[in-house]
Amino acid sequence: MRLIADELGGERGGESVFSGIGFTLGVGEPLTVTGPNGSGKSTLLRVVAGFLPVAEGRIALEGGGEDYPTVASACHYLGHSNAMKTALTVVENLAFWRDFLGETDRDLPVSEALEQVGLGGIGHLPFAYLSTGQRRRAAIAKLLVAHRPLWLLDEPTAGLDKASEARFAGLMQAHCAAGGMIVAATHLPLGLEGARELRMGFKERTVIAGGIC
Length: 213
Ligand SMILES: Nc1ncnc2c1ncn2[C@@H]1O[C@H](COP(=O)(O)OP(=O)(O)OP(=O)(O)O)[C@@H](O)[C@H]1O
Hints:
About 30% of the residues lie in helices and about 25% in strands. It is α/β, with parallel strands linked by helices and about 210 residues long. It is globular, with a radius of gyration of 17 Å. The two termini are about 25 Å apart. This is Heme ABC exporter, ATP-binding protein CcmA.
């Protein structure tokens, strides 16, 4: 399976935000997207996910087979918002997402996913009761309860403490080791060993080996 961006361009409000983006991501590979505020990192992730139209060029998933015929069908998108209902408990939110996304044979049970993000024991609480970092960890658990090979992550560690950052780095490494792919926009090192870096907002935009990790 390969994710291919070819001369990809994205717009916001009818104005070009970026153009000429090119990269190929193979199984097990992480890519970090870096650059100053407003350089288009979030826009790029939303174009890849299919939430915004491709303004020019193309984004495609090759080799996804019947299970993953499109990028959208293959990806989890974790944006700035956690996409959880505040009135539902943490367990109810995760069960909703598992049911909505459809079960696969690689999903973790909700209780195990909560253990993996250090939230074991508080799954019964309404999402509204959780702290900022706990909310982010619950949103990360969503990645585990419904398997998708491609994780699109927008500043995924915002609000996490050091221990949670390290735990999430382990989850990302495990995802890649199992053949997953990650595209993560970030201002912070993510602990993703061997990640290439796509630098946005610079005149010479390049993908460089062994970037921010
Ligand atoms: N809905 C919108 N309409 C018009 N312009 C927008 C819209 N959303 C974002 N933009 C503009 O698009 C540009 C890229 O924004 P984007 O959020 O992709 O940047 P970013 O690199 O993710 O920034 P940050 O590091 O601050 O998160 C910015 O100039 C922003 O003002």
